[in-house]
């Protein structure tokens, strides 16, 4: 898969509770996780990855390598504003692809 360097992947809410044995087990979740992992690997080298999960503190996720950085609370507003401006500047067809 070829992804230009100025692209972003946003992965939202891939919680353990959706997997077998969880509170809200979904069918096909293993395939979704495999595809998400493949996309994250591709985008990690070629663009920005925003992986939103609600299970772990940011410093733990960073330490385990699930994210490449954790944004301190005092810097978050400015980071989100800049990030939103970047995403808004992307071609809408590219966002539809993701």
Description:
Strand 1, helix 1 and strand 2 form a beta-alpha-beta unit. With 98 residues, the chain is α+β, with helices and mostly antiparallel strands. The chain has one domain. Strands 1-2 form a two-stranded parallel sheet. It is globular. The termini are close together. 47% of the residues lie in helices and 12% in strands.
Helix content: 40-55%
Structural class: alpha+beta
Distance between the termini: 12 Å
Question: Would you identify the regions where 5 or more consecutive residues have pLDDT less than 50?
Answer: none
How many distinct folded domains?
1
Oligomer: single chain
What is the average of the pLDDT values?
75
Can you list the strand order of the major beta sheet?
Answer: 1-2
Radius of gyration: 15 Å
Major beta-sheet overview: 2 strands, parallel
Tally of separate helices: 4
Q: So what's the overall shape?
A: globular
N-to-C SSE string, H for helix and E for strand: EHEHHH
- Strand content is 5-15%
């Amino acid at each position: 898969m070829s992804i230009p360097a100025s692209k972003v992947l946003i992965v939202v809410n891939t919680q353990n509770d959706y997997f077998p044995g969880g509170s809200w087990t979904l069918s096909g979740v293993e395939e979704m996780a495999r595809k998400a992992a493949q996309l994250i690997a591709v985008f990690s080298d070629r663009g920005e990855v925003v992986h939103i999960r609600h299970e772990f503190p940011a410093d733990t996720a960073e330490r385990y390598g699930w994210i490449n950085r954790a944004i301190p609370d005092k810097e978050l507003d400015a980071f989100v504003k800049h990030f939103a401006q970047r995403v808004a500047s992307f071609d809408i067809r590219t966002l539809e692809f993701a």
